[in-house]
Amino acid sequence: MNQVAGNTVVTLGYTLADPDGNLLDAGNEPIVYLHGGHDGIFVPVEEALEGKSVGDSVTIKLQPSESFGEYDTELVQIEPLENLPEELEVGMMIEAEVADGADGNSFFYTVTGIAEGKAVLDGNHPLAGVALVFNCTVTAIRPARAEEIAARQPL
Protein backbone atom coordinates (compact mmCIF):
# COMPACT_ATOMS: atom_id res chain seq x y z
CA MET A 1 0.00 0.00 0.00
CA ASN A 2 1.81 3.10 -1.14
CA GLN A 3 -0.97 5.68 -1.14
CA VAL A 4 -3.29 7.05 1.53
CA ALA A 5 -6.71 5.53 0.85
CA GLY A 6 -9.71 4.17 2.71
CA ASN A 7 -8.89 1.65 5.42
CA THR A 8 -5.17 2.40 5.52
CA VAL A 9 -3.33 3.16 8.74
CA VAL A 10 -1.47 6.43 8.22
CA THR A 11 1.37 7.79 10.34
CA LEU A 12 2.05 11.53 10.26
CA GLY A 13 4.79 13.77 11.53
CA TYR A 14 3.17 17.12 12.22
CA THR A 15 3.21 20.57 13.74
CA LEU A 16 0.27 22.71 14.76
CA ALA A 17 0.44 26.52 14.78
CA ASP A 18 -1.90 29.46 14.95
CA PRO A 19 -2.35 31.69 11.87
CA ASP A 20 0.44 33.99 13.13
CA GLY A 21 2.92 31.10 13.09
CA ASN A 22 3.06 30.60 16.86
CA LEU A 23 3.77 26.91 17.50
CA LEU A 24 0.97 25.28 19.51
CA ASP A 25 2.09 21.65 19.25
CA ALA A 26 5.53 20.53 18.09
CA GLY A 27 4.23 17.06 17.26
CA ASN A 28 6.73 15.22 19.42
CA GLU A 29 4.65 12.05 19.05
CA PRO A 30 3.42 11.08 15.56
CA ILE A 31 -0.28 10.85 14.77
CA VAL A 32 -1.40 7.37 13.73
CA TYR A 33 -4.96 7.13 12.43
CA LEU A 34 -7.27 4.94 10.34
CA HIS A 35 -8.02 6.73 7.07
CA GLY A 36 -11.43 6.60 5.44
CA GLY A 37 -14.08 8.43 7.44
CA HIS A 38 -13.46 6.76 10.81
CA ASP A 39 -13.26 10.09 12.71
CA GLY A 40 -9.60 9.60 13.62
CA ILE A 41 -8.50 13.00 12.32
CA PHE A 42 -10.12 16.27 11.27
CA VAL A 43 -12.10 15.90 8.02
CA PRO A 44 -10.20 18.61 6.05
CA VAL A 45 -6.89 16.93 6.96
CA GLU A 46 -8.16 13.53 5.86
CA GLU A 47 -9.43 15.00 2.58
CA ALA A 48 -6.07 16.70 1.90
CA LEU A 49 -4.18 13.44 2.54
CA GLU A 50 -6.26 11.24 0.21
CA GLY A 51 -3.96 9.79 -2.46
CA LYS A 52 -0.73 11.06 -0.87
CA SER A 53 2.37 8.88 -0.54
CA VAL A 54 5.10 8.48 2.09
CA GLY A 55 7.18 11.67 2.09
CA ASP A 56 4.34 13.92 0.85
CA SER A 57 3.55 16.99 2.95
CA VAL A 58 0.42 19.11 3.21
CA THR A 59 -0.51 22.27 5.06
CA ILE A 60 -4.16 22.72 5.99
CA LYS A 61 -5.73 25.84 7.48
CA LEU A 62 -8.53 24.84 9.85
CA GLN A 63 -11.30 27.10 11.10
CA PRO A 64 -12.54 26.44 14.65
CA SER A 65 -15.67 24.72 13.29
CA GLU A 66 -13.39 22.24 11.46
CA SER A 67 -11.27 21.41 14.49
CA PHE A 68 -11.98 21.93 18.20
CA GLY A 69 -15.16 23.99 17.80
CA GLU A 70 -16.16 27.53 18.60
CA TYR A 71 -15.59 28.83 22.13
CA ASP A 72 -18.78 28.34 24.17
CA THR A 73 -19.20 30.65 27.17
CA GLU A 74 -21.89 28.31 28.54
CA LEU A 75 -19.13 25.78 29.25
CA VAL A 76 -17.56 28.12 31.83
CA GLN A 77 -18.68 27.64 35.44
CA ILE A 78 -17.82 29.19 38.78
CA GLU A 79 -17.80 26.69 41.64
CA PRO A 80 -17.11 27.11 45.37
CA LEU A 81 -13.82 25.42 46.26
CA GLU A 82 -15.51 23.30 48.95
CA ASN A 83 -17.58 21.61 46.19
CA LEU A 84 -14.43 20.51 44.38
CA PRO A 85 -12.56 17.34 45.22
CA GLU A 86 -8.94 18.45 45.48
CA GLU A 87 -6.45 21.25 45.92
CA LEU A 88 -6.58 23.19 42.69
CA GLU A 89 -4.09 25.29 40.80
CA VAL A 90 -4.69 27.45 37.74
CA GLY A 91 -3.99 25.39 34.63
CA MET A 92 -4.99 22.05 36.16
CA MET A 93 -7.49 19.84 34.41
CA ILE A 94 -10.14 18.11 36.51
CA GLU A 95 -12.77 15.54 35.65
CA ALA A 96 -16.34 16.03 36.80
CA GLU A 97 -19.62 14.22 36.34
CA VAL A 98 -22.00 15.84 33.87
CA ALA A 99 -25.23 16.94 35.54
CA ASP A 100 -27.50 16.16 32.60
CA GLY A 101 -29.02 13.00 34.01
CA ALA A 102 -26.83 10.76 31.85
CA ASP A 103 -25.24 7.85 33.66
CA GLY A 104 -21.48 7.91 34.01
CA ASN A 105 -20.75 10.79 31.65
CA SER A 106 -17.76 12.82 32.72
CA PHE A 107 -16.43 16.09 31.44
CA PHE A 108 -13.01 17.70 31.68
CA TYR A 109 -12.55 21.25 32.89
CA THR A 110 -9.50 23.48 32.95
CA VAL A 111 -9.11 25.61 36.07
CA THR A 112 -8.68 29.12 34.66
CA GLY A 113 -8.95 31.14 37.85
CA ILE A 114 -9.15 30.86 41.64
CA ALA A 115 -10.27 33.74 43.85
CA GLU A 116 -12.36 34.41 46.95
CA GLY A 117 -13.01 30.72 47.63
CA LYS A 118 -14.21 29.97 44.13
CA ALA A 119 -12.73 28.38 41.03
CA VAL A 120 -13.45 29.22 37.39
CA LEU A 121 -13.80 25.99 35.41
CA ASP A 122 -13.69 26.06 31.61
CA GLY A 123 -15.10 23.04 29.77
CA ASN A 124 -13.95 24.21 26.35
CA HIS A 125 -11.04 22.46 24.63
CA PRO A 126 -7.97 24.68 25.12
CA LEU A 127 -7.90 25.32 21.34
CA ALA A 128 -11.65 26.00 20.97
CA GLY A 129 -12.25 29.15 18.96
CA VAL A 130 -8.72 29.16 17.53
CA ALA A 131 -7.97 28.93 13.80
CA LEU A 132 -5.17 26.41 13.24
CA VAL A 133 -2.50 25.65 10.67
CA PHE A 134 -1.81 21.91 10.53
CA ASN A 135 1.37 20.96 8.69
CA CYS A 136 2.08 17.26 8.25
CA THR A 137 4.22 14.76 6.38
CA VAL A 138 3.16 11.19 5.68
CA THR A 139 5.80 8.95 7.26
CA ALA A 140 4.14 5.52 6.89
CA ILE A 141 1.14 3.84 5.26
CA ARG A 142 -0.06 0.28 5.70
CA PRO A 143 -3.27 -1.66 5.08
CA ALA A 144 -5.54 -1.77 8.14
CA ARG A 145 -6.23 -5.13 9.72
CA ALA A 146 -9.86 -6.31 9.95
CA GLU A 147 -9.95 -5.76 13.72
CA GLU A 148 -8.72 -2.17 13.26
CA ILE A 149 -11.48 -1.48 10.75
CA ALA A 150 -14.04 -2.99 13.13
CA ALA A 151 -12.69 -0.84 15.98
CA ARG A 152 -12.50 2.22 13.70
CA GLN A 153 -8.93 2.91 14.93
CA PRO A 154 -5.40 1.53 14.78
CA LEU A 155 -4.72 -1.11 17.42
Account of the protein in words:
- The chain has 155 residues and is mainly beta.
- It folds into two domains: 8-68 and 128-151, Roll (Chitinase A, domain 3), CATH 3.10.50.40; 73-122, Thrombin, subunit H (Beta Barrel), CATH 2.40.10.
- The protein has helices spanning 43-49, 146-151, and strands spanning 8-17, 23-25, 31-34, 57-62, 76-80, 93-97, 106-115, 118-122, 132-143.
- Strands 1, 2, 3, 4 and 9 form a five-stranded antiparallel sheet that branches. A four-stranded antiparallel sheet has the order 5-8-7-6, with no helix packed on it.
- A hairpin with an 8-residue loop joins strand 6 (93-97) and strand 7 (106-115).
- The longest helix has 7 residues, at 43-49.
- It is elongated, with a radius of gyration of 19 Å.
- The protein starts with 7 loop residues before the first strand and ends with a helix.
Q: What would the CATH topology of the largest domain be?
A: Chitinase A, domain 3
Radius of gyration: 19 Å
Summed up, the domain count is: 2
Distance between the termini: 18 Å
CATH class of the largest domain: Alpha Beta
Structural class: mainly beta
Can you tell me the residue ranges where pLDDT is under 50 for at least 5 consecutive residues?
Answer: none
CATH architectural label of the largest domain: Roll
Fraction of residues in β-strands: 35-45%
Largest beta-sheet details: 5 strands, antiparallel
Task: Please write the string of helix (H) and strand (E) elements.
Answer: EEEHEEEEEEH
Q: Write down the overall mean pLDDT.
A: 91
Helix segment tally: 2
The shape is elongated
Percentage of residues in helical conformation? under 10%
Extended strand count: 9
